[in-house]
């Protein structure tokens, strides 16, 4: 029997032992921890059973730990122990023989079905500060850790059957946090992205750019896919539009799956009117969709605008056409998951509801940064505005470039873009200012205002307060801390170089 004592004090005895190997409980929450090994001594067990505690002050819990049959925590007040009891004499003898320099961290396993480097990086940073031993072998070699035992588990829904079986078997054995919205069939605390909000952001982004043909593309079923599609469809329905559904059914033969899916997508896209705005389940499939478009002669984004989900930079920026994508705020999701696991390992209760993290916004890249304007006169006006943002021009000049009257031009903007020409110009200049700030946060506000056509820092600040809820200086400081800062609640725009 091995005995470890923390903060055990009464009139004639006082012992202190480093118990960092069992830091689940706080020092002020208990007095004695007894660890019974695989071959416990019968006499010691009898002494342990003979301890007398006041009613309501004893709490025993058995937990599995590597090399240990059971861990029993007994919480009691010092006055409940007699000075001359056999337990006290045995305790004193074992504490004198204890090795005070050996300590173990709490073991935490991270087993993710979707290995996002941002997730493991944030969890690792938290583990370092919280004093965890982080088991990450599965992240690198994908070996299922079947016989692992520890104090905490962070998981997400996997595609592999063997990993799913391990998660279902292991989750009840220690505090567990589920990351993501897909349910692997376990009861655990959960931190998830807001997929409906992500879909709604994409719908608003496409609507702002004048699209009226829409499609949803996925190759997977499940709650994540369903929620993203629902958020996208519902936001479009509110604006009076419908959405084409493109859901790929996997072939039994995986060797033919890649080429078969590309041919299937090409056939389906030929039947849908252009220009088309296509929202895709994730960035990897968005890159595949862009390749299909280019191979079949469709321009991206002029003929087919594409939006991914996840903002995985290596996928988005290394595509044939850089991919616009919803930033789901993966870092915040991972940090919330790590904090929640720490809370559970300290004995706190599991939250009754999942923690839902809102998306950070949309990172606009080339694949969707295009106004889908079919009317040739309106197209001329939009192109003129884009080429002359830094200059001052009047509505009369704009109508002359579009070869229509002022009234006709105003009606065209309202009908196709749901805003007046003046509002469109202000929005375009503010978007340009955001891009300049994101690219060069150290520029002066005067330079940014001049280059974007807003004229003065005062105008820039007024517009940022209106659309972002903060001043220009506050916005610049936030950009220096987080270069991928999203737009405020009144906009779905998130600029990227």
Cα radius of gyration in angstroms: 30 Å
Net shape: globular
Please give the largest β-sheet.
7 strands, mixed
The structural class is alpha/beta
**Helix segment count?**
18
Helix content: 40-55%
Low-confidence stretches: 1-102, 484-497
CATH topology of the largest domain: Rossmann fold
What does this protein look like?
The chain is of the alpha/beta class. The chain folds into 3 domains: 2-97, no CATH class; 105-372, Response regulator (Rossmann fold); 376-495, Homeodomain-like (Arc Repressor Mutant, subunit A), CATH 1.10.10. 41% of the residues lie in helices and 15% in strands. It contains 18 helices and 18 strands. Helix 8 crosses helix 9 (283-295). The termini are far apart. Mean pLDDT is 76; it is low at 1-102 and 484-497.
How would you summarize what this structure contains?
The chain is an alpha/beta fold. It has helices spanning 42-49, 86-97, 117-130, 137-141, 161-170, 195-208, 223-238, 257-270, 283-295, 313-316, 330-345, 376-387, 395-402, 406-417, 421-439, 445-452, 457-467, 472-481; strands at residues 2-5, 8-10, 13-15, 32-36, 70-74, 106-111, 132-135, 152-155, 176-179, 189-193, 214-218, 244-247, 276-280, 304-309, 324-327, 355-357, 361-364, 493-495.
């Amino acid at each position: 029997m091995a005995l470890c004592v923390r903060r055990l004090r009464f009139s004639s005895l006082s012992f202190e032992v480093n118990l960092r190997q069992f830091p689940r409980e706080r020092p002020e929450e208990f007095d004695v921890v007894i660890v019974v090994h695989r071959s416990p001594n019968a006499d010691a067990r009898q002494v342990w059973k003979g301890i007398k505690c006041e009613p309501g002050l004893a709490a025993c819990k058995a937990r599995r730990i590597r090399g240990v049959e059971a861990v029993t925590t007994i919480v009691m007040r010092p006055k409940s122990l007699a000075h001359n009891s056999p337990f006290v004499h045995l305790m004193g003898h074992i504490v004198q023989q204890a090795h005070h320099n050996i300590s173990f961290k709490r073991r935490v396993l991270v087993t993710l079905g979707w290995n996002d480097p941002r997730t493991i990086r944030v969890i690792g940073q938290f583990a370092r500060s919280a004093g965890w031993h982080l088991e990450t072998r599965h992240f690198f070699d994908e070996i299922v850790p079947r016989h692992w035992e520890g104090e905490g588990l962070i998981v997400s829904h996997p595609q592999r059957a063997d990993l799913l079986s391990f998660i279902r078997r292991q989750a009840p054995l220690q505090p567990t946090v589920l990351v993501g919205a897909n349910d692997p069939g376990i009861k655990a605390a959960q931190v998830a992205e807001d997929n409906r909000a992500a879909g709604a952001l994409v719908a608003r982004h496409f609507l702002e750019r004048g699209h009226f043909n829409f499609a949803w593309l996925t190759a997977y079923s499940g709650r994540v896919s369903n929620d993203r599609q629902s958020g996208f469809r519902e936001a479009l329905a509110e604006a009076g539009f419908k959405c084409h559904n493109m859901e790929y059914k996997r072939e039994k033969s995986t060797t033919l799956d890649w080429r078969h899916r590309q041919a299937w997508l090409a056939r389906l896209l030929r039947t849908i009117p252009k220009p088309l705005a296509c929202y895709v389940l994730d960035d990897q499939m968005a890159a595949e969709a862009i390749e299909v478009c280019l191979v079949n002669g469709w321009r991206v984004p002029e003929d087919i605008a594409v939006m991914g989900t996840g903002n995985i930079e290596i996928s988005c920026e290394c595509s044939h056409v850089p991919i616009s994508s919803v930033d789901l705020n993966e870092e915040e999701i991972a940090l919330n998951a790590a904090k929640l696991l720490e809370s559970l390992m300290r004995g706190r209760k599991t939250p009754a509801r999942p923690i839902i993290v809102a998306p950070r916004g949309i990172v606009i890249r080339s694949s969707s940064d295009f106004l889908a304007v079919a009317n040739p006169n309106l197209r001329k006006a939009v192109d003129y505005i884009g080429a002359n943002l830094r200059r001052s021009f009047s509505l009369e000049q704009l109508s002359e470039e579009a070869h229509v009257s002022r009234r006709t031009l105003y009606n065209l903007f309202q009908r196709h873009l749901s805003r007046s020409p003046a509002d469109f110009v202000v929005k375009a200049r503010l978007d340009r200012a955001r891009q300049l700030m994101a690219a060069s946060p150290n520029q002066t506000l005067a330079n940014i205002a001049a280059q974007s056509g807003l004229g003065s820092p005062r105008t820039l600040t007024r517009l940022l307060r209106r659309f972002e809820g903060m001043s220009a200086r506050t916005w610049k400081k936030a950009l220096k801390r987080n270069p991928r800062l999203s737009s405020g609640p009144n906009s779905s725009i998130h600029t990227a170089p």
